Structure formats: structure tokens, C-alpha cells
Amino acid sequence: MVTDDAGQGGTAAGQDNYAGHQDGAGHGMVQLITPAGERVSHPEYDLWVKDVSDEQLCSLYEDLVVIRRIDKEATALQRQGELGLWPPLLGQEASQVGSVRSLRDDDFIFPSYRENGVAYCRGVDLADILRVWRGAASGGWDPYTVNMAIPQIVIGAQTLHATGYAMGIQNDGADSAAIVYFGDGATSEGDVNEAMVFAASFQVPLVFFCQNNQWAISEPVRLQSHTQLVDRGAGFGIPSMRVDGNDVLAVMAATRVALDRARRGGGPTFIEAVTYRMGPHTTADDPTRYRDPNELEDWAAKDPIGRVHALLDRKGLFTEEFEAGVRAKADAVARELRAGCTGMPDPEPLDVFKHVYSTPNSWLDRQQDHYSRYLASFGDPAGATQEEGAR
Amino acid sequence: MTATMIKEFRLPDLGEGLTESEIVSWKVGVGDTVSLNQIIAEVETAKAVVELPSPFAGVITALHEQPGTVVEVGKPIVSFEVKDDAGNQTAAAAPAEVALPKREPNLVGYGAVVESTGRPVRRQRTLVQPTPLAEPAPLAEPVETRFANTSTAERPRSTPPVRKLAKDLGVDLESVPGSGPRGLITRDDVRNFVGGGDLPAAAQELAAQEVQPAPAQGEREVRTPIKGVRKFTAAAMVSSAFTAPHVTEFLTVDVTPAMELLARLKENKAFAGHKLTPLTLVARAVLIALRRNPGLNAKWDEANQEIVQFNYVNLGIAAATPRGLTVPNIKDADRLALVDLSTELAELTDTARAGKTSPADLSGGTISITNIGVFGIDAGTPILNPGEAAILAMGAVRKTPWEYQDQVALRQVMTLSLSFDHRLVDGEQGSRFLADVGALLADPGMALAMA
């Protein structure tokens, strides 16, 4: 059985360096690719990634590189005044790619604000990913076109939405599942704890995917939790796994275990993906004020992309041609992202009324009417056109 | 295709809501060729030191700011010469027409950039900075400061709701005797201290009333909860207007003699340092006229089915205060000499404007005056202060062509408006009273005759 203690005895070389939880009994950390790029075997988790071919491994590598490039380009766009804000995901690529690439199209994703790599892999349009960060819309896309909700800024609130959605799946008798992303800081929030109580009580098909990136802005995880985050799951009666979040294969294996349980009616799973936020919390943050630079160096040695590169190298798959192809893809995506961002039309004033309710609402209509007449009072013919267009 | 153009890069808001940043250093110089996203500068904001990636590929033509300067967000800091087709940011935004100017970075907090696409867009407006709809009302001086000099002994024993009540009523708990166990000050102790348990609820509401903030700019309507003075005023006016049948009479008087008297009195040593105004004289005239017409200094007591005739005058003066309309009254005003009356009037209005009127001063009025003349108004139909039988509105003193000694002369003229409760005041009494007040103002010497 792959259940609660599945992580026990995981290979996890060097895991004690993680998170200051050297005393952390209970859960080891699942790892399938070492930082040096060595593929280590695991008696149980190997089975869950047995089907991952060389070609798929290459494709995972490409996604890792592309989303790092998206992150870099978006950060630059913020520095150039094109985005109001951006929450970098640098260092968390494997957690995002490994989990989202385990999902089926009919599974539903509830992200926090940092899952922009997840959004890319899910097929969200590049410009749509940036829309909200540019302040051009309050949400970038229609969640039902890709089965992924828009970024949730309120810490942990999405865990409740996900639990409710998963209860809906249960009521429908479907075998799809939901996954909810949140961070280490969110586990201190009431919402997350309430969601876990409900998810366990109703045994809903939901994966609680916690990216423990070690820092809740400037607060280290050890101040928030005197136990490993993974141990919290047991308190709710939720089977839990601790996985190397910088190891794309291990993340994939763990997510597949959890999804399989969900589809079989086995209820929720809690995954702690141990990773590291290499960059600032957002572009408005300066981590050098609260973080030891040595820590960054330690984690750079565990880079999620470097180890897949090394593994592909060992397998003789990392050819010049392959490398050039991936780079070209990343460049093309970055160009498209930049063009989509800078060419994005500014929203019209009346756009604020769109997407508030799915059905007509007389109260909102009245406000819109007032506002459009207000705009029209400036005597701007363009405003008048908009007013008509908005009805 | 090889045409070039100059692009400026303006300092963006690098954090959330920053207004300025300091250029720490330039990583490039004029004449350098830079690629897109190449680091060109290091900038320190209030939040972090960050590197600025170049938004263009091209040649640096100017660095507008020296290292060490603090630059406002939105100011140009560097210029580039870029090729029109250099694969810059907009080049890939395919369908745009060549003729369209490229979009400049749209800075956070700098509003929408004018767009040149075919889409209908709003032109940028240059709105005149709207002035606030109202001056923010001055806040009453915090109650605490009034007790700043009291002794530092242990705080009197009381509970938080009682302390709140005391604060609202402007009561210093130090001076309130406590009747509870071990000297605990109770709610009733505070109430009794300020003048009995029958303190009108309005007084408490008045004390608790908060000054409303000025409406935000651009709001089309402001919704203010009905509470405090406004709520009390409304209830009082409704109850008054719909229980007491009002009659309002007007009388326009040549008050030139009264104004001349006022001028003379001001120069009189006895009144030195006293504030004499038309209101002082009108108040005095009302008090004298009441002696001959006591029926207006009375009250309809519905509960006891009695008409209460007051043998004293608590003269109410309607005052516009930061908290709204209040009608504090001068106790036993009929016993005051003119000079004392002027002192009381000045104190009463000053206290009211400072929002420090004590609850006791607000209750027990017997007749009121409202001075609408200060607003430049001539006449109105004032509504009775509940429990009173009459209210006199004094209009503005205007120089008006007026009959004087059988000729038309420019005289100082004032209109008096008197409302009275027709349940207990008949037209005859009301009219006589008003005529007396008018006569006193038209010829202050009449005071000798009437008194």
C-alpha cells in the first residue's frame, strides 16, 4: 500500500539539510533524482513514474526551462514598468511542473498567486497570465476553459474553494479530482485548517499541494511550525507525503499517488513539496534584508533544472540540438509574453462591471448606469460609445 | 527599414506604490549598445535595491540622471536610439499598423496611456483638481487634553462602558463620587453628576457624535448614517412640527435707532471688552417684551394636560456647530443686565462652536432665538424647539429705502419672524409680543416705558 507512510525510507540523500528539521522524525523525503542528477530507485514511487519515457523527461525539462524564462521575463517587465507586480517562482519550477503535468484535463486546479508556471503548463494564454499583474483585469482568464481558477491573492482562501469544488465532484459521482496549491505560510491560516477538516470529513477527491518554499515573505517556516508541515496532515486524518519539491519526478510520483487515491474514493492527500523561493516574495520585496546569502547558495546547489540537465546528460539525451531547441522555445515564449503584455489594451472604465455576476443583476446594472452617465458627463464621444456598447 | 527613433525610459514604480527611487549606479554609458533586458542600472527604492533591465535593444543616447540622485517615478532617466524594426517589444505584437506609434511603458499609477488602435478609447482627461465639497469640520478638542493637568493618582474605579459614557458626556471621572462597591463609579453616578437621571438622550448622542469626514473627491453621493445630533434634530423637528400647530408672523422694522444705540454702547466704558451684537439687543428686546406677554414663555404639557407658565426665562440660542444644530440656553436670562447677557451670549456661542456645550445647557429652554441674519437671510418660518411656545428668527440688517419722517430714506431694516404654538398662544398674544419686540428695536427708548 502506498499510504501514509509511503515516504518512509525514501532515498533522500542530504535531506537533513532541509528546513532545519533535522529532528523531524516520521517522514522522510521522497527523492528520485539527486541534485547531482543521479536517478535513485525507490521501491514504491518508481512504479508511479515507470511510464515516463526519455522523450517525456525531455519535455519536462523544456517546461522547467520555459517557465523559468517566463518568470525572468515577467520580472524584467515589472522593472520596466509594464507590470505592477510579479511574484517570482524561481526555484519552484519542479514542484509546479511535476504536479500539473500529472493532472487530467478534467481535474480542476485552484492556484495561489505564484502558480504562473502551472498556468503555462495548463495552457493558459501567455498574455492572460500577465493580465492581472498588469492591472488590466481582475482575473486573466475564464477558469472553465482550462479548468484552472484565477490566482488567489488571499492567503489560503482557495483551499476552501477547492474543497467545495471537490465535494461537487463527489456529488456528481465523477472520477476527476481537484488540486489546490498553497504555501508554507498558508498552513498557519484558519482557512487551510478548515478546508482540511471538511476535506477529511467528506473524504473529498482533493490534493492539498503545499509548496514549502521556506519563507512566508520574511518569516521562516520554522517560526510557524514546530513540526514538519507534512506531520500536520495526520492531525486531520489526511494521508500525507513529504517530497523533494526540486525533483520533478518525485513530485510527479507523489501527485499521481494522491490523484489515484482521490479517483478511487480514498479522500484527500496532503503533499509537502520541499522547495525554495530563490527570488523575492514579489518584485516589491528585498529578501537580502532577512535572508542569509549562504542559504541561497545551498539551495542553488539543489536547483531543479540543473539536476534534470545532469540526468539527461548521463542518459546522453542532452544534445546540442536539444539544448538549442529548448532555448529557442524559451526565447519564443518570452517574446510572445512580452508582446502580449505591452500590446495589451487598457481596460475601459466600464469593464469593471464585467464578470461580477454570471447573470444580470439589477443592482449592479444601476451602478453601471450611474457610472456610464457620470463618464458621459465629461462630454467625451468615446465615452458615449462605450456606454452604449456596455449595455 | 533602417530608420531609427529615440525612446525614453521613464522610471517605473518598482515596488507597490513607490513615488521615487535613487539611481545607485549606471551599468552602461552613452554610446553603449545594449540588448533587451540587459542590466543598465542599479536603483534603490524604499523597499529594495533592484537592477533595471533595459526595455529596448539599441544605443544609449543619454543618461538623464546622475548616480546618487533621487528621481521621481515617471521621469525619464535614459534615452535609447532604437531601430524601428529592431525586434523590440512591440515588433512582435504583429497586427499593429506601422503608422501607429509604439506604446510607451504604461507606468503604474500614471493612468491609461493614449492608445492609437482602431478601438474606441477614452482620451486622457485633464480634470481640474476638484475642491473638496466641504471643508473638513474641525474636530472637537479631544476630551483627554482637558484633564491633562489633573493629579496622577490612581484612576477612579469604573468599568469601560462607564468610562466611555463619561468621555462622551465630557465628565471627568476624578470628580464623580462613586456609589458602587469600594467606590466604583456607576453609570448612574455619571448621569447624576451631569444633572440628574432625566438627562435627555439627545445630550448623550450629542456627546457621542462624531464629526463626519469630508466626502472623497469625485463621489456623486455620500451616504451618512442618521445618528447623533442629526438624528436628534430630525426627531425633535418632526415631533415639534407635527404636534405643535405653528403660526408664523413677520414684522419688518427700521432698526436704525437700535444700531445707533449699539454703536454708542460699544464706545461706552461699561461695555469695554464685551461683545455687543444685534443679537444682544434682540435678546434683550425679547426678554423685555416677554414681561408684557408672558404667555409666550410657556409650555404645553400634553402628558399632564396642563399649560406651564414659566416665571423665569431660559433663553435658547440656535447655534450652528461642527456637530450640527444645537440650541443651548442661558439660564435665568431675564435676570441678567445687558452687559452680563452679552457675556453669556458670547460664552454660549463660543462653547457651542467648540462642540463643548454641556448637556445641562441644552435642556430646560423656555423660548428661543435663531439668528438667520448672520447667513444673510431676511425671514423664515422657524420650527419650535420642542417644549417651547415661541421662537424668533432675526433676519439680516439691511440698508433699505424706507419711509422715515415722511420721506424715503436709506435705513437699516430687519425682518423678524416669529413662530408660536397656536395651542397655547393666540394670534393676539403672539402679535402683541412681536409688535413689542419690533417697537423696542425701532425705538430702544421704549424699554423705559415697557420695563
Give an overview of the whole structure:
The complex is a heterodimer of chains A (391) and B (451). Chain A is α/β, with parallel strands linked by helices and 391 residues long. Chain A folds into 2 domains: 15-342, Rossmann fold (3-Layer(aba) Sandwich); 349-389, no CATH class. Chain A contains 16 helices and 7 strands. Chain A has a 5-stranded parallel beta sheet with strand order 1-2-3-7-6, sandwiched between helices. In chain A, strands 4-5 form a two-stranded antiparallel sheet. In chain A, strand 2 (178-183), helix 8 and strand 3 (206-212) form a beta-alpha-beta unit. Chain B has 3 domains: 1-123, Beta Barrel (OB fold (Dihydrolipoamide Acetyltransferase, E2P)), CATH 2.40.50.100; 143-199, Irregular (Dihydrolipoamide Transferase); 245-450, Chloramphenicol Acetyltransferase, CATH 3.30.559. Helices cover 25% and strands 23% of the residues of chain B. Chain B is elongated. The model of chain B is unreliable at 86-153, 196-200 and 206-212 (pLDDT under 50). The N and C termini of chain B lie far apart (103 Å). Chain B has 11 helices and 19 strands. Chain B has 451 residues and is of the alpha+beta class. In chain B, strands 9, 12, 15, 16, 17, 18 and 19 form a 7-stranded mixed beta sheet that branches. At the A-B interface, helix 2, helix 14, helix 15 and helix 16 of A face strand 5 of B.
Biggest sheet character of chain A: 5 strands, parallel
Largest sheet of chain B: 7 strands, mixed
- Order of strands, main sheet of chain A, comes to 1-2-3-7-6
Derived from helix and strand composition plus strand pairing, the structural class of chain A reads alpha/beta
What is the radius of gyration of chain A computed over CA atoms, rounded to a whole number of angstroms?
Answer: 22 Å
Number of helices of chain B: 11
Share of residues in helices of chain A:
40-55%
Secondary-structure element pattern of chain A, one letter each: HHHEHHHHEHEEEHHEHEHHHHH
User: Would you identify the CATH architecture of the largest domain in chain A?
Assistant: 3-Layer(aba) Sandwich
* Overall tally of domains of chain A: 2
Which runs of chain B of at least 5 residues are low in confidence (pLDDT < 50)? 86-153, 196-200, 206-212
Given the C-alpha coordinates, what overall shape of chain A results?
globular
Query: What's the average pLDDT of chain A?
Result: 90
